[in-house]
Amino acid sequence: MNPLQHLLAATHVLPTLPAAAQRAITGRRFFPELISGPFHHGLVVVFTVATALAALAALASLLRGGRHPGPAPGDELPAPGQRQAGPAGRVSPKLR
Average pLDDT for residues 37-58, to the nearest whole number? Predict the structure, then answer.
């Protein structure tokens, strides 16, 4: 069932319209043509905002700076909750 036909039949408006208007409104072309313009406009807005946000994220990434060195190959990271030796061989307290 056409969405407009369903709405107009539920509100009892459809029978009050002339036969030609009923056929036009409940036909296969009226509803798609009715929503295609606003739907297209919404897609343009959404994709424009998405493009602008992606460009802003790329700019923020560029301004962030170079890569920071990670652990060297072969370095082992301590297990979660394990104590780690700090500067001058002192053991740092366990963080909670």
Answer: 97
